[in-house]
Amino acid sequence: MSHHHGHGCQQGSATVDYPQTNYGTGAKWIKHLTQGRLGTFNGGHYADVNLSQVLYHHRVDDSAYIKLQVWSAPGRSKPSFAEAMKQKFKPAKKGDEFGPSWTNHWWKVSVTLPAYWDQYEVVQFEFDPDCEAMIFTTDGTPLQGITGGWGGDRRVEFILPSEARKARKFDFVIESSCNGMFGVPWNGDTIEHPDMNRRFRLASADLVVLNQDAWQLLWDFSTLREISESLPGNTSLQNKALVTANAIMNTLDKDDLGSIDRSRKLAEAVFGEGWADKGDKIYEEGPDEASIWGIGHCHIDTAWLWPYQVTQQKVARSWSTQVDLMERYPEHRFTCSQAQQYKWLEQLYPPLFERVKAQVLAGRFHLVGGSWVENDSNMPSGEALARQFIFGQRYFESRFGMRCETAWLPDSFGLTGALPQLIRQAGMKYFFTQKLSWNNINTFPHSTFNWVGIDGTQVLCHMTPVDTYTAQATVGDVNKGVTNHKNLESSDISLLVFGNGDGGGGPLAKMLENLRRIRAAANNSREIPPVNMGHSVDEFFDVVAKKSDAGKALPNWNGELYLEFHRGTYTSHGSIKKGNRKSEVLLRDVEYLATLASLYKWHNPDYVYPNERINDCWEKVLLNQFHDVLPGSAIGMVYEDAEKLYAEVRKEGAQLIEDAWTTLFPTSYPLSNVAALKKRGSLVGFNTTHLPRRDVVKVPLGAGAANLKAQVVQASKDGSYGYALMDCSEGGPIATPTGLFADCMPVSVFTNGSGHFVLRNSSVQLTISEGRISSLVDVELGRELLTPGQTGGLVIFNDRPNYWDAWDVEIHHLETVHPLEFSNISVVAEGPLRASVKSEFKYRQSTITVTISLDAITASMKKDSRSLFIFDAVVDWHERHEFLKFELPLNLHNDVATYETQFGHVQRPTHNNTTWDMAKFEVCGHKYADLSEFGYGVAILSESKYGFSCRGNVLRISLLRAATAPDENQDQGMHEFSWAVMPHVGHFLESDVPQAAQLFNSPLPTRFVAGDGTKSPMLHVGPAFAVEGARNVFLETVKRGLDDKFESKGGDVSVVLRIYEAFGGHAQAWLKIAKHIPVSKIFATNLLEDHEAELSFLDSEDHAHHAVKLNFHGFEVKTIKLVLGRSDIQASSEGADHWITIDKPSFV
Ligand SMILES: [Zn+2]
Description:
Helix content: 10-25%
Distance between the termini: 106 Å
Strand order of the largest sheet: 36-37-38-39-48-45-44-41-42
Bound molecules: zinc ion
């Protein structure tokens, strides 16, 4: 070694003349003091002598140069550009105040430039209204967003177009809006409710000329400082950066502008000689393979601490800013998700939409996610998740001619194991997420992995090691992409998703400048990871896939990505949960009925499938599934909007059902139409599920409804209503009223008159004693289902999470359990069809009414099915920071409980063995939660709640919370909701729990059909579509095809069915299609209805059906498209004899 070294020296440059003597002190530094010094280079206490003094050549703000006029829109109105321009403006000036919160103010700005500014290449207008704003041309094209105030997202500069600079005159328009990036939180604590009366001062409306070199030096210096401060350990690059930054501090002299250039020259020691002139070409030098892939992004919450209409402005501001930025930085790429935001832009800002579209087509503005919004993924139904992708992908395809390849849910509060299959079926194979870095118990072990869903489908998943989707593009961020990567052994690249979110407008110019410098440094040193730019997220994943041998080298994660945080969001804001579930069920009924009406057209030959109206309803439901709306974590204003949307869906859905019914039955009336009930006619139920069923339906019986009285089995004491038993036990669409069958189990209720009540039939029995459920018995088996000595009922927990109030219920809430007692109990129905007791009592400020009912029928038509106990609650809720649940201590034992998830179920531990098990103390479920052991189980069914838990043997459903941030009145007031307790013979897997839960959530749509209606062929025709041969296969959706042309006679006529396996095992099922449906072809498709395979079909044995055999694996979702033929007949036929050749009942 020494030999070679010596040899090398002789060959190299001349030896240094090392001095003989040294009387100096040497150059050893005190490193941390030098480090500390860097903070004084710009601004702060030394602003009058440091770099701050040379950042601007000129600044003017007087009226000779700047003329401002303003018009304030009334109230919280948000007029369009055109409307605003018609108003009368009045003079305004810097320093004026505007407000209150959420108001919009329009400015007309005229600037005149001094002649001596001709020498400058760049002149800026600096506008700081202390809130958000947007700059428009005078003809209404948005140019860029403004974020006022002094946050890290400050963006107040607008570079005047060069023509304007040359003309020394420019007119433009600004809209300022009185809210910040995070709305207007009370007292400045981000998650506090809004301060509705905040005012904002126009802090700046100045013309400025920047010293461009000084700004470049500022960015040089901050990169050097970041390198010195955030690279770990003691490395040569880190020291070199500190030495260089220190030398710059010694060189810069505010009175000698030449010192700026000299300082910048010093920075080349780290960035390389002449690096700055290379511009974006810096990314073409150095290492061939980058470790960090930079992509600009702006995570815009579709509503959160501000309402939807403010989001529309945020989108326009942010995206215009990015379009402007990509024109100045050729390497810049920007990606944004959420088709809904693109649609808003298209509707509200058409000129900007065209600019964005041009950048999309040019490959710089990237579509991502493929979904309608970045939805919550815990609570939407399987079909709703499918629609998120269908509506998203179809929108992107229709407007830009392309679909997304990468699903994108970085901020959703946990991700269902149903997603991988749906992502693949929506034409994507990659998935980006991030939120699990917020886990507050366990650290998620992977960054890049195969995510395998409940059915075995995988997607390639990247969870950025940078731990954020709003990175600031610092050296620390870039470095974390490597140091925090948990799978470097199998994949060594990371995504850097950078840019301010929400009102922050995405990446700032300084971030792009920083990344150029970081890359320049990496081109000269291996101590900093090389970052690249100019690529898409899809390309990043392509490289991961390729380098990992198509994922074979990566670890797998099976099942849900459970977020160990924000567990209160399954319950917060009961109204939004209920609106979501009811709308999902309503739209399924609407689509099914409208599909049949559009095929049969018996009583309205002009009926057209109301495709647009159904889609409008879906868009509203999908919008409210946004990841801060459905979880209940938004401000109160958002819920006012969401309730309106649900009310519109309810109204429209009811009308669409009315239209479909009158097409299928000429004269039918809703049961609410009491006057119509006096006519001669019959109750008719329309079964929109695929399941045979019996239902107890409450029917109003007023005076004159004698005819109806004969159709009910049981009337109320005062005769004002009765209960009919509707039978559809043979399957098919039509349920009719009937008397008690021999296999029904008449119910009864006993009381000893002093707080002891027993609801009973020959199937099950429930006892309330001293206000608590003291016994639950399977009568047929004589088996007690509650643990001896324990009781069930309502319970209250103190609910004070550590910070995120509406989001979190924390594990310590379980330490304070207060059982409530049902009191003031009375018998309200005595059987034989329904027996009910009602308890009405006060708890502190709240009134709780619970009616417990038992019917003479079983939960489903499965042979050994038991009866349900239905709990109907009406709660006037006025508590704060308390959590209401219902619990049952079951005499059952299992390590896991089962909860419904989208298109399947998920099992979670009931014990606290490990911290991973403990973390799941509150979990999300859909229509059921179940605790089973060999031979028996008990489920709780839910029709509008999503929070459950099973700890040990205690199964709970979460009912109401009461957070005060960010909505200070969350859940205050009236609530109506129901749940059911369902004992069942056999383990869950052998049970009818999923069927019963489906029926419990789908009340039988029942109408009164009068007069000619009783002759409707609908009453006599069998089911159009049925799934047989496998009880684990569910027909979820019946709708018309996405590509059908409804208004014209040409094109495909098709019906699309969504069918899935609900228990987690293989199945061979037959899809049967009634012969009168003229099927010409049948295709298996993906969610987007792309044909994947043509299926052969045959005559069924009964010759009444076409039959298709379908093979499923566990939790598989299939989409089947039936293409109907005989359009030739369609053109020639008329009236009730429409083109579908039905098997006409003889009497028609
Ligand atoms: Zn978010």
